[in-house]
Amino acid sequence: MKYHIITYGCQMNKADSGRAAAMLEKKGYKPTKDIKAADLILVNMCSVRQSAVDRVHGLFHKFEELKIKNRKLKTILTGCVLKKDQKKLREIFDDVQPGLYVKSGGKNNSLSNITISNGCNNFCTYCVVPFTRGNLVCHDHRAILKTAKRAVKAGAREIWLLGQNVNDYQSGAVNFAKLVAMINAIPGDFRFFFTSPHPKNFSDELIVALAKCQKFSKRLNLPAQSGDDEILKRMGRNYTVKQYEALVKKIRKNIPDINLSTDVIVGFPGETRRRFNNTAKLFRKIKFNIAYVAKYSPRPGTAAANLKDDVPRLEKKRREQILNGIIKNGQ
Ligand code: SF4
Prior knowledge:
The protein has twelve helices and 15 strands. By secondary structure, it is an alpha/beta fold. The chain folds into three domains: 2-98, 3-Layer(aba) Sandwich (Rossmann fold), CATH 3.40.50.2300; 106-217, Transcription Regulator spoIIAA; 224-331, Transcription Regulator spoIIAA, CATH 3.30.750. A five-stranded parallel sheet has the order 2-1-3-4-5, with helices on both faces. It has a three-stranded parallel sheet with strand order 6-9-12, covered by helices on one side. Strands 13-14-15 form a three-stranded parallel sheet, with helices on one face. Helix 7 packs parallel to helix 8 (204-212) and helix 11 (273-286) runs parallel beside helix 12 (313-329). It binds iron/sulfur cluster. Iron/sulfur cluster is lined by residues 120, 122-124, 127, 129-130, 164-165, 198.
């Protein structure tokens, strides 16, 4: 078993990381500098500085990618974690232990990641997934259920259903709505999560199914990507802002205590100030619990890479800060 420690913040945190490393090695872990090779990633942060908090939030996608490759990977956040930040950071980490350094992932904390599909049939113009992973391939629902049952029996308390576009899932007659109902019916004390869904595939059937699932974690990441119709069109997202807002309304009506997060890209080619302001408007309106804001950068081979990357770097940064400010202060 290998561990990797990331330290953000002051000297004191660095010293604490040294102590945490010693504790882990006592438990039989070996250090690795390669985050991809780690079975346990410990992030030691100092949330007094917003930049550290922002950087920790930025790890979300990295962890998602790593977890797809290593289902046993465990991520722990420790250090000076302010109470106000803890709720949001619990979405990113398997465990948040302010002031504690290592807890050996006992029965009650165990988590099981189950990849239900690979690849994607959409071609969002900024995304490399269809090129790197190919078309959507869904795993047989019987195999998924067998894995989930086995995991729950072995003590898993959190089941994560993973895929690039989970709600496009189809295995024979079983779509994603039916799959979540089947997962929910597995006896045992656990909650289930999933990531990532596409708004255009979020059917009424799925909303109704989730509302009936008492084991659904009620955490939902619904990537908006932009709050401007012209930009959404350029991104190839296949929904409008109105449709996205209507979807959120429907989800909140059926699952009132849903914890809603989103992904958004700022500075996409052609995103004028006016178009960006539409995204800020969407943020103010929806009031997401958390948002993962990415500054656009072209990915070779994608359709968007042929568009002029015309928003200056500093302006992208400014837009990122505005959206993060809305999430943090609600305005
Ligand atoms: S952003 Fe998501 S839905 Fe769009 S192509 Fe990439 S993986 Fe598919």
